[in-house]
Specification:
mainly alpha, binds iron/sulfur cluster, single chain, globular, about 425 residues, two-stranded antiparallel ribbon, 2 domains
């Protein structure tokens, strides 16, 4: 928490770094690197490797929210907060807003978005639940993504139903049992998606322990079967469409062409405001001293790139998925289950896309990571192969033999296009 507050607040008091400042000599550059070069990509990687330990043990926002909740009003959680679309809505809105305000480059939008989210997490904690992490469970912008990525982790807290029934709760009846802060129904917990891996329930009734598992079996036979439409939305249009565009829009040819076309339209119609109006930094990037100002035309071109990429990913993946589910059983639930097969490639493309921030930050300071592009391509290719294998297994749950191969081929074509 101390490091979080220092890295968020102190750069606000310092002048913007120049080209002569390096990660190791300037706190603002160091904070940028810590947040976007280390924290963001490597928390995603850590979640894929060991589950959501970050959420349960290290996240300052979750800890502050629970701290506030322990001392707060303890009200009942309102129904609107339990809407399962919140993780998607909040992730999309913070991602797009972060790009409009250049969150990866400047300390003010980072402080506004991260600090603002921490503040709201504390307010929610102070109002709802008792010693719970209501924010983390229902509203946190990254909880949906971490929940999906956590499904491919080979570690989880396993519940043994037989041992649970055999061993009565030995805890003091005057005291509450295990306090699962993110409100996971421990007894019936399936998979590692909602569990924050805090370890508080470990050994409870002799029925819960940290254990290895086959990630594929959870996706194919376990929690993947209960996947929702919101999971599919988060995987396909968001992680495979919106996120790559949000990370690469400035070098996109579509952005340049759209921007040029919009400029010509504005000039032909004598609309000068979209070309010259400067909005405050908390609406659009506005740092004249760094020669970095985003006009309304730039912002519209950025939104067009993001929308186009989202639509493209939806067509490339949802159409094959719909064909597969039609062949297999013609039900939305089958489509949602099949979409779970894309979690590895979605997680790999998110991690590798974020890693490009790490690499470009290091490169600007003269540190070249050898074979970085090759390694990233290899990681995405390996994850893609895993996704194909998973789709084959999921298809096998619903139909055997020929139908399985046919359905997989549809999905494989979509992955190869991507
Ligand atoms: S299920 Fe157990 S390990 Fe997971 S978040 Fe709840 S108390 Fe922590």
């Amino acid at each position: 928490m101390v490091a979080y507050v220092i890295l968020l607040a102190v750069p606000l008091l310092l002048p913007l770094p120049t080209s002569a400042d390096f990660i190791w000599s300037n706190l603002t550059r160091f904070a940028q690197f810590a947040f976007w070069g280390i924290w963001w990509p490597f928390v995603v990687l850590g979640t894929a490797l060991v589950g959501r330990f970050w959420c349960g043990l290290l996240c300052p926002e979750g800890a502050l929210s629970e701290f506030a909740s322990e001392r707060g009003a303890g009200r009942a959680i309102p129904t609107w907060m339990k809407w399962s679309g919140w993780p998607v809505v909040s992730f999309v809105s913070t991602t797009v807003y972060g790009q409009l305000t250049s969150i990866y480059q400047y300390p003010k939008p980072a402080a506004l978005l991260l600090g603002g989210s921490t503040f709201v997490a504390m307010v929610i904690g102070a109002r709802y639940g008792k010693a719970k992490r209501v924010w983390c469970r229902f509203l946190c912008p990254v909880s949906g993504v971490f929940g999906l990525v956590g499904k491919i982790a080979p570690l989880h807290f396993r519940v043994e139903p037989a041992a649970w029934r055999r061993n009565p709760d030995q805890s003091n009846p005057q005291k509450a049992g295990v306090n699962c802060a993110p409100l996971v129904p421990i007894k019936t917990m399936q998979g590692a998606s909602a569990c924050h891996m805090c370890g508080r329930c470990s050994s409870h009734r002799g029925a819960i322990r940290l254990a290895w598992r086959k990630p594929a079996s959870d996706i194919v036979h376990g929690s993947g079967r209960a996947a929702t439409w919101w999971d599919t939305v988060l995987i396909v249009p968001v992680l495979l469409g919106l996120v790559p565009a949000a990370l690469k829009w400035s070098s996109s040819g579509v952005f340049q062409v759209t921007r040029q076309w919009l400029i010509e339209v504005c000039l032909n119609r004598h609309w000068m405001s979209p070309l010259s109006l400067r909005l405050p930094w908390w609406i659009l990037t506005n740092y004249p001293s760094a020669s970095d100002v985003m006009t309304i035309v730039d912002a519209v071109a950025l939104l067009v790139v993001i929308a186009a990429s989202t639509a493209l990913a939806s067509c490339m993946f949802l159409v094959p998925l719909a064909c597969c589910s039609f062949i297999l059983r013609s039900r939305l639930q089958v489509l949602n289950h099949l979409a779970q097969a894309l979690i590895p490639i979605a997680a790999a493309s998110l991690f590798c896309g974020l890693l490009s921030l790490t690499i470009s930050q290091l490169r600007s300071d003269g540190i070249i990571v050898p074979h970085a592009d090759l390694l990233r391509a290899a990681a995405v290719s390996a994850a893609g192969s895993w996704s194909v294998a998973l789709s084959f297994k999921i298809a096998g749950v619903y139909r055997r033999h020929l139908w399985r191969q046919l359905a997989t081929r549809f999905q494989w074509r979509g992955s190869r296009c991507f």
